[in-house]
Amino acid sequence: MNAKAASRADNPAHGEEAAATRARFEEEALKHLDALYRTALRMTRNPSDAEDLVQDALVRGYRFYDRFEPGTNFRAWLFKILTNTYINSYRRKQGRPQESSLEDTEEFFLYNQLSNDGERVTDVEDTVLDRLGADAIQRAIDQLPPQFRTTVQLSDVEGLSYAEIAEATGVAKGTVMSRLFRGRRQLQRALWEQAQAAGFTSGSKVHVDGPSETGNGRNGVVTKAGGVQ
Amino acid sequence: MINCGDCARALNSYLDRELSDEDIVQVRHHLDACGGCLYLYQFEESLRRLVRVRCQEQGAPESLRMRITMTLAMERQRREQSARRPQRGTGID
Fold it and tell me: Which of chain A's residues have a Cβ under 8 Å away from the Cβ of B79?
């Protein structure tokens, strides 16, 4: 590090260029601050840790910005640093991840729950789920197992592509797809539980056999792969 | 022409905009022809929107933005000083 700094200092042009580059880092990185913070919050589930995590990640990004290859995806690179910083510094501190109580759920669980035979629901805003606020939805995401949670957050909230999430989380694209597939099914279950916990589902037209029944008691609106209509 | 099962399996990738052009056309054709799948598609799309919009209401606290700006400024200063030191006297009268 010192040797590197010294050789850079021998070349004034390089020093100025590097300073300009770093100023650019700050400008570009701060554009993603909200997304980084939201994701850090899902990782740590604690606002104070989330703030520290984002700050640590951005200082690391700043220091290592010369390793970023121009023309490649800056956002994915930033999230990758966030993920690595979390794994290196914070995950240990968090101790054993809380086991998820979510069962694996059929695909399109909410659509099945909310649709009747004669009446299909086409907009979630017409359902009890519209009453779920940001807090309840975030609690639902927080119930997912960690690797699903981050993947779902990056995709469904932050809008990263499969390739970007693969880069950011250090796994193959196929792994991203399978995490999304399972994570989203669990999220649907978790959202439903949030609506139940808030009392939104009682007295509605939705048919629930019991609060924690699995989706086995389907009601004729089976939409799992191969059985729509 | 794909059937309802194919359409249901492709639906999430379709919503993610991760399908090939060819598959996109297939799904669109199916949704044009099949009311049941169209309902499901519309519902899933609205659910995605609900999650995204509500969760994006939350941003980073202003105090964090300020803290990071300050930390990076200090980091920059530290680096600029160490880069300038050997050039002392070269460009200044």
Answer: 5, 18-19, 22
